[in-house]
Structures are given as structure tokens and as C-alpha cells.
């Protein structure tokens, strides 16, 4: 029999500490929708998504009700659209984006990811067409998310793509300047992008995946912080143990939801993504966990060490709780989506330079950071190149999601509302990397031995 | 298949009777009840066999949540699988 302490602990986690399953993401392959006639391809895409995902939202809501655990998002990831655009490279791929947006609205999901291209080694015609169209696609759609993989540990970094993405990010922000530049918040530039990530905006359904899978992303920074607060002044070994135990419980809830969703939708289970994903809600913050470990504020010296411990302990606890783990799996540090990060950025305790160091030891990278509106494209490319280099050399995923706040300066604020949150515009070092970016070419893949 | 019904809040007369009546009305069989005052809060936990209930589980959860509001307490109905998953290896 279950004991009452466990029951009350679980209820407290849900009611007071924001325990939730962040997302059920259905990955759908669109490879069988490829057609040289773009209208036919779009029709096939719309039909397939609507057919496969018609019960996704309802099933998510039912499971949430049956088990009493909130499931915040139901989402869809699809095959990188550049692969479909490759069959009709002379046509404007924005049609695909509009089709995805329409399908997302029909089935009721709040985001669909996969307006993506994988160009870590080079471009095909479809990749070019898609990357060029990203600003327009994110301007004319609401629910489509885009990502571009520009580097990997095995292939090196495609500097031509890095140079291009600086301009694409700026243009996307400019086109959506009237909506707080929200387009750029739906665009991620990756190094070592995972093919089974359920989290937006970087989700896509990799070409190595099955026709359709269910991936689940768990969350729960509030639960981890509360567990550490309860433990008081224990030593750091115990801190790691507490994080592991808590991560185990959180992930088991995610695994239960994943198994149930897979069964009810008759779709194979893919992975559980063990991530601590913050929201702007008070108490649902990764920064607060780091502060609970003993930092005056996130960004203080010691932050990277605390984050390294947190990230590792979350994985150790979570891995045993799930039969398949994948995606991004780790602690997220999106600035505008995390109440503690927002405060730290406002008080200048947290800088982009410190965030860059933090990304070397945690999941993803420079995420949801508003930068001054006059930041040149080459400086953005420089930031992308640095971040990709960290990912490439350390064999981990890194990403950049920057929002140039058009018409605004450092110290002012952007407000996206909802889960994307709000935050101050952070200072950027404006010294120019233009000559480096203009060289183009590829950074060769790094050594995998002689590691020092 | 069991549900775990948790009642939290300020103690008052007839909570157990009303929750039991609600369960009985839809064919839920009460297996075990524990009740205590934890951290100054009244807490009752009930294990109910829901194999033969006549309404969908989510409807029972809604009905009891509503009943709880009438009585000024919080009633949470959850499937036992969640607790088993989180607290047992």
C-alpha cells in the first residue's frame, strides 16, 4: 500500500511546487509527403498531421485528468521541412510554414516545430530556400517554430551558415518588430541538434526516427528547489543526492504519462527528455535552485559549478526512471522564461559572458536573451560561432536563441507574454568579428582524443 | 484499479460521510481510510476501488472537487498509478 507521506508529498509538489509534465510532443515523419508539386506536398502534409494528431490534445487532457498531473503542452514536431523543400527548390517554402500553422490550429496544438534545415556540413538547394524564407515564415505564421543546425562534433562548424544566420535572426526580428520581435523567439540555431527533442522552439523529427513517435518532456524546477530548501545546510554531496532523488520522481511521472499516451494513441513511445524547464511563474525557476544551493544571486562566481552539479544530478536521477532517455535532457537557462534569471539580468549579476560559460556545463545554450536592436548581424554570427564551438568541442548540444530588440537599447525590456516571458535587454560586446565571419568556409571537426 | 481520494483543509462535521456517499452513489468501493492532522491541517486519505464505477473517472473527480468546494475543503482524486510510479522502484 502507498503510504500517506508519499501521497501528501506528491500532492504538495503538484499544488504548490509547480510539478508538471511540460509537453507531450508527437513526432511525425513527413518524408512520404515529398512531392515536386508544392501544393500537392502541402495537401499531403496537412492531411497527415491532421490524421495522426487528431486525438493528441484530447488524449493529453484525459491523461492529465485521470492522473491528476498537469500536462502543459501538446505539440507536434515534423521532419525538417528543408527535406520537403528540396523536391521543389524554386518554390517559396513559406507555403509549408502556412500549412503547418493551419494544421496546428486544426488539431489544437500550440506549437509545431520542424521548419528546419540541417546544414552542419553544407547546403542543398532546399536548405538554401528554407533558410532564406525563415524571416517571412515566422512573420506570417503564429505557431510554427524554426531551427537550423549549423555544426556538429563529427562535421565541424559550417561558417557560411553561421554568417547567414546572423542576418536571418536580425531580419526575423525586424519583420516582427511590431510584436516585440517575437519571430526571433521561435528560431533556434543549433550545434549537435538532437533528433528527438520534444521542447520548442528547437523540436524537429529527425530523419532517423520512426514514422510517428511520442516524446515527453518533464519539468519541475520548483520541486527541486523546495526539496533543497527543506534539507537546509547539508553538504554538497547531499545536495546532489537530493537532486537525484527528486529528478527520479519527476521523471517517473513523465514516464507514466509517456507510456499511457503511447498506449492510448497507439503510437510508439520514443523518449523522455529529462529537463528542468523553467517558466516565468514564481517558484518555477532554475536560477532559484542555484541560489538555494548558496549563491547570493544567479550569475555570482560559483554559478557554473552549481549548474554543473545540478545538470549532472538531474540526468543521473532521471536515467534510472525512464527506459529511454533523449532530447536535450538537462537544466535549461532561458533568461526571459525564468523569474530568477530575469531578476539577475536586471540587476546585472548575470551577463551574456557568464551565460556563455554556464552553457558549457548545462543543457542547450544562450536561450531567450534579448539583445540591443542595433546589434550588427556579424556580432550575432560571432555569438553563434562561439556557442557552436563550445558544443562542438564538448560533444554536447548548444543553441542560440537571441532576440534583437529592434528600436530598443540595453536596459529596456521586451515582453512576449505567456510562457516566453519578458526580460531586460542585455549588454553585448560590440567589437566587430566581421572579417572572421566574412571568411566563410568550415571549422574542421575537432580531435576526439588527446583531450585536455 | 484504485483511486486515491485526498481531502485537505479545515475539519468539519460530515466530511467522511459526504465523500463516502458520493463514492457509493457511483459504485466505488472504499477499501481503506486514514485520517490525521498534519501540520495543523486536516488530512484524510481514502483508497477506493473504482473497477466497477458507473461514471467516467474524470467525472467522479469533478463531482468530488465540487463537493469539496461546498464543504470548504480541497478534494483531490488521483489514480494510484501515479504514486506507485513516483515512489516505488
Sheet-strand content of chain A, in percent, reads 15-25%
Q: Strand fraction band of chain B? A: 35-45%
Oligomer: heterodimer
> What distance separates the N and C termini of chain B?
19 Å
Q: What is the count of DSSP helices of chain A, taking H or I runs of 4+ residues?
A: 15
In angstroms, what separates the terminal alpha carbons of chain A? 52 Å
**Helix/strand/pairing category of chain A:** alpha/beta
Mean pLDDT of chain B: 88
Quick one: CATH superfamily of chain B?
Answer: ACT domain
Number of strands of chain B: 4
Radius of gyration of chain B: 13 Å
CATH class of chain B: Alpha Beta
What is the ordering of alpha helices and beta strands of chain B?
EHEEHEH
Largest interface: A-B, 20 and 25 residues
- Overall spatial form of chain A: globular
Low-confidence stretches of chain A: none
List the strand order in the largest sheet of chain B.
Answer: 2-3-1-4
Describe the protein's architecture and organization:
The complex is a heterodimer of chains A (about 450) and B (about 90). Chain A has about 450 residues and is α/β, with parallel strands linked by helices. Chain A folds into two domains: about 25-190, Anaerobic Ribonucleotide-triphosphate Reductase Large Chain, CATH 3.20.70; about 215-445, Anaerobic Ribonucleotide-triphosphate Reductase Large Chain (Alpha-Beta Barrel). Chain A is about 45% helix and about 20% strand. Chain A has 15 helices and 15 strands. Chain A has helices at about 5-15, 40-50, 55-65, 80-85, 95-105, 125-140, 160-175, 220-230, 235-265, 285-290, 305-320, 340-345, 350-360, 375-395, 435-440, and strands spanning about 20-30, 70-80, 110-120, 145-150, 155-160, 185-190, 210-220, 270-275, 275, 330, 365-370, 400-405, 415, 420-425, 440-445. The longest helix of chain A is centred in the middle third of the chain and has 30 residues, at about 235-265. The mean pLDDT of chain A is about 95. Chain B has three helices and four strands. In chain B, about 40% of the residues lie in helices and about 40% in strands. Chain B has a four-stranded antiparallel sheet with strand order 2-3-1-4. By secondary structure, chain B is α+β, with helices and mostly antiparallel strands. In chain B, strand 2 (about 30-40) and strand 3 (about 40-50) form a beta hairpin. Chain B is globular and about 30 Å long. The interface between A and B is medium-sized, with 20 and 25 residues.
Amino acid at each position: 500500500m502507498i503510504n500517506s507521506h508519499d501521497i501528501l508529498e506528491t500532492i504538495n509538489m503538484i499544488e504548490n511546487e509547480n510539478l508538471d509534465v511540460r509537453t507531450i510532443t508527437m513526432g511525425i515523419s513527413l518524408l512520404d509527403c515529398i512531392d515536386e508539386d508544392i501544393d500537392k506536398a502541402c495537401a499531403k502534409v496537412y492531411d497527415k498531421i491532421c490524421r495522426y494528431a487528431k486525438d493528441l490534445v484530447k488524449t493529453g487532457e484525459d491523461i492529465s485528468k485521470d492522473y491528476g498531473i498537469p500536462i502543459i503542452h501538446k505539440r507536434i514536431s515534423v521532419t525538417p521541412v528543408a527535406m520537403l523543400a528540396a523536391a521543389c527548390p524554386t518554390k517559396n517554402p513559406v507555403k509549408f510554414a502556412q500549412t503547418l500553422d493551419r494544421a496546428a490550429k486544426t488539431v489544437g496544438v500550440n506549437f509545431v516545430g520542424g521548419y528546419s534545415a540541417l546544414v552542419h556540413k553544407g547546403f542543398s538547394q532546399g536548405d538554401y530556400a528554407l533558410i532564406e524564407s525563415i524571416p517571412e515564415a515566422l512573420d506570417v505564421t503564429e505557431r510554427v517554430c524554426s531551427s537550423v543546425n549549423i555544426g556538429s562534433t563529427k562535421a565541424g562548424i559550417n561558417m557560411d551558415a553561421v554568417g547567414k544566420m546572423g542576418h536571418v535572426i536580425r531580419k526575423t526580428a525586424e519583420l516582427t518588430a511590431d510584436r516585440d520581435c517575437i519571430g526571433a523567439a521561435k528560431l533556434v540555431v543549433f550545434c549537435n541538434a538532437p533528433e528527438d527533442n520534444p521542447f520548442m522552439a528547437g523540436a524537429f523529427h529527425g530523419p532517423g526516427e520512426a514514422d510517428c513517435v511520442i516524446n515527453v518532456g518533464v519539468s519541475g524546477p520548483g520541486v527541486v528547489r523546495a526539496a533543497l530548501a527543506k534539507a537546509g545546510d547539508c553538504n554538497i554531496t547531499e545536495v546532489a543526492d537530493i537532486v537525484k532523488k527528486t529528478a527520479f520522481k519527476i521523471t517517473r511521472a513523465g514516464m507514466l504519462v509517456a507510456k499511457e499516451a503511447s498506449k492510448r494513441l497507439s503510437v510508439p513511445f520514443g523518449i523522455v527528455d529529462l529537463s528542468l524547464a523553467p517558466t516565468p511563474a514564481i517558484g518555477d525557476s532554475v536560477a532559484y535552485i542555484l541560489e538555494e544551493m548558496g549563491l547570493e544571486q544567479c550569475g555570482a562566481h560559483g554559478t557554473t559549478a552549481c549548474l554543473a552539479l545540478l545538470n549532472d544530478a538531474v540526468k543521473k536521477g532521471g536515467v534510472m526512471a525512464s527506459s529511454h532517455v533523449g532530447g536535450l535532457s538537462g537544466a535549461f537557462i532561458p533568461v526571459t522564461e525564468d523569474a530568477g534569471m530575469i531578476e539577475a539580468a536586471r540587476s546585472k549579476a548575470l551577463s551574456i559572458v557568464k551565460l556563455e560559460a554556464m552553457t558549457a556545463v548545462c543543457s542547450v545554450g544562450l536561450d531567450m536573451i534579448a539583445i540591443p536592436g542595433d546589434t550588427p548581424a556579424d556580432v550575432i554570427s560571432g555569438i553563434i560561432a562561439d556557442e557552436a564551438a563550445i558544443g562542438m568541442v564538448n560533444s554536447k548540444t548548444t543553441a542560440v536563441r537571441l532576440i534583437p530588440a529592434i528600436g530598443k537599447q540595453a536596459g529596456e525590456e521586451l515582453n512576449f507574454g505567456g510562457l516566453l516571458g519578458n526580460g531586460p535587454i542585455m549588454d553585448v560586446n560590440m567589437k566587430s568579428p566581421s572579417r572572421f565571419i566574412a571568411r566563410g568556409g568550415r571549422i574542421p571537426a575537432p580531435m576526439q582524443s588527446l583531450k585536455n | 484499479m484504485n483511486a486515491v481520494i485526498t481531502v485537505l483543509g479545515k475539519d468539519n462535521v460530515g466530511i467522511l460521510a459526504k465523500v463516502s456517499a458520493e463514492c457509493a452513489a457511483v459504485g466505488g468501493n472504499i477499501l481503506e481510510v486514514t485520517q490525521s492532522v498534519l501540520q495543523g491541517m486536516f488530512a484524510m486519505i481514502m483508497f477506493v476501488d473504482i473497477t466497477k464505477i458507473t461514471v467516467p473517472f474524470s467525472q467522479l473527480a469533478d463531482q468530488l472537487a465540487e463537493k469539496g468546494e461546498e464543504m470548504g475543503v480541497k478534494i483531490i482524486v488521483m489514480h494510484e498509478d501515479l504514486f506507485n510510479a513516483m515512489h516505488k522502484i
